[in-house]
Amino acid sequence: MELQTSQIAVFLGLTTLIAVVTYFYCRGQRGSSDEGQEYFLAGKGLKWYFVAGSITLTNLSTDQLVGMNGNQMALLAWWELAAVAGLLMLTFLFIPVYYRYNCTTTTELLERRYNNPHIRSLISLLFLAGNVFILLPGVLYGGSLFMQQMFGLEHLNIYYLAIAFALVGSAYAIFGGLRAVAVSDTFSGILLLSLAILVVWKSLVAIDFDFSDVPADRLSMIGGFESPIPFATLFTGMLFIQMFYWSTNQTITQRAMASPNIKEAQKGILAAAAIRLMIVPPIIVLPGIISYKLYGEVANNKAFGMIVSDLLPLTLTGAFAAAMAAAVLTTFNSILNASAALWVCDVHKTYISKKPNVRRLSLIVSVIMVGLAFIMFPVFLHAENLINLMQELYGFLSMPILSAFMVGLLFKNVDAKAVIISVVLGVLLYAFLTMVWPQLPGGNYIHMMAITLFFSVFSALLINKFIYKKKAEWDAHNVFGKNHDK
After folding, report:
1. SS3 (DSSP) at 474
2. What is the CATH number for 146?
3. Total number of domains in the chain
């Protein structure tokens, strides 16, 4: 499809409108005299609807819409359905604890529980590695690929599109802080979800609601042994992946931690869970399944862009491109803002300076992280499927990180050094399972993530007992039994 003037006009108009509305809404608003709290937690002033909107669009980006539809099967809906469980865990288990400990970052909770700043810094560095080398380049690649498909720009080097996304997304995160990020997320989310539902409807109409020619395995929710999500993984690694992502990941929890109180945060998270349950699953699998019927299996990561380009009128393709660009930008700037928070609060203040210039330091850190993200960009250019690659790569970090939270929240009298060693061992084990011994029986990487988690937890407890001569004591009733508003 050739690029049309009307597409460009609508795309630029809506993109500019979202930026202008965000600017005027946020202008002059300040909820805290604490520069760090204002910049990273919006002055603790986010209303529930901004929490819901920001959580939804921070997660929902091209890696979901492009990557999951690229699988062209219903099975991928399990990621979103299982996410509801992760959001409920955040609502009723983790958020009350974060508020009770008055945390700015999720990793601050680790310092409080272990009484050790070094474990906080280590976990933050692991989060940063995942953000910089996996999430940021994956989001940039998915968004750039979609724009190529949408506007017929295959002749344009994809790096130019990625650089454009990086520059605009960085501006939101660096100059606006979390408040601007959350507000732009919400306005963009309304546009994206509305148009995504329209794409689902137009896709269904295009095949007369007839899925008869689609193979049964692409419509089944029961994954076979060789599928991306074997059914057994729902009872092993899947639940823990959701716990990690929604309850300990700074990029997500930062929004909920920015509300004035627990109840406001919980309302926002529950609203995000409702959206995740009722709206998101159809938009991340149905267009992909229908594209299989229309184009065949060759579509892969290009499936979503092709179906949007073919089925929407020109004006609406421009609008959808604006919505997708907003989704890329909001996910990108959310990860960047959260990463700056992790570096400033957990590393810089601990080892370099207690009172840095938050905005200037965040600018420097953000520029460096964006530059590093492009180092991994070529890896995604050759990905068979975007979402599967990102999930598998993140397994190196996610389960070892989650083990540190689990041990710290469930037990007391555990030496932080024992947990640090177990986290390193967990990273090495996952590398061995996926790179050296990938044919382990039942060897889907989701199973391997569960194995890595339990190995890391038990390693920490054993090292604590036999090397550091300390006896871990069950403490979950004190941690989760005192969840109340302050």
Report:
1. strand
2. 1.20.1730.10
3. 1
- Rounded (5°) CA angle 20-26-31: 175
Is 181 inside a domain boundary? yes
pLDDT digits (tens, 9 = 90+) for 75-127: 989 999 999 999 999 999 999 999 999 888 899 999 999 999 999 999 999 99
Token duo for residue 425: 């061992």
* pTM tops 0.85, yes or no: yes
Distance CA 145, CA 149 (A): 6
The answer to whether residue 24 is domain-embedded is yes
The CA distance from 183 to 197, in Å, is 22
Kindly provide the b/e burial profile for residues 316-334, where b requires at least 16 CB atoms within 10 angstroms of the residue's own CB: bbbbbbbbbbbbbbbbbbb
Beta strands in 41-126 (DSSP E): none
In a domain, 170, yes or no: yes
Where in 276-433 does DSSP place strands (E)? 411-412
Residue type, 8: I
Return the sign of the alpha-carbon dihedral for residues 249, 255, 260, 262: negative
Strands 473-474 and 411-412: antiparallel
Measure the CA–CA gap between 94 and 391, rounded to whole angstroms.
Answer: 23
Query: How far apart are the C-alpha atoms of 314 and 293, rounded to whole Å?
Result: 23
Q: Which domain holds residue 202?
A: 5-382
E strand or H helix at 396:
helix 386-410
What is the chain's alpha carbon radius of gyration, rounded to the nearest angstrom?
22
Residue 328 belongs to some domain of the structure: yes
Contact by Cβ (8 Å): 366, 166: no
Going by C-alpha positions, the residue among 110, 131, 113, 112 that lies closest to residue 122 is 110
